[in-house]
Predict the 3D structure of the following.
Amino acid sequence: MNDVVFKTGGDWDSTTLTNNGKEVPANRLIVDAQTGRDEFGEPDAGGVSLGGEMTAYIESQATPDEQTPVFPGRLVIRVPNHEVVVENNHPQFLFEVTQVWLDQQNVTNNLLDLHLEIDAVNNNVSGYITLYKSHFFSADEVATINLL
């Protein structure tokens, strides 16, 4: 099982990537999850329980042509002002058992999107999490939180 931690203070000098406590010199870290949509592709209550897709891998400096999967395991993303934890310990990486926390609150059933792209070679970074909250008497909410 992997225990991957991505941590940054907002610049390259403060950025680290570790797996099982050992630093991983990496060219890229990619995490892309989409879930929480109905049969028409519209946001819907349920998050991960509605099914979806996730890609998560590391391209290390030692083997830049290989994509090392992050899951099964745990991924912690620590950025200024936020912490995202994604866990999926199923040996076959069944998407439906994925759990997601944002700032210590379980958002598994509210998740729409999680995107993190760290590309050290091309000096590109982007990251956000999008959550959905349905309301019975008022308009539903979709909130995107920029991580990077």
About this structure: The chain has one domain: 2-146. The CA atoms of residues 25 and 61 lie 6 Å apart.
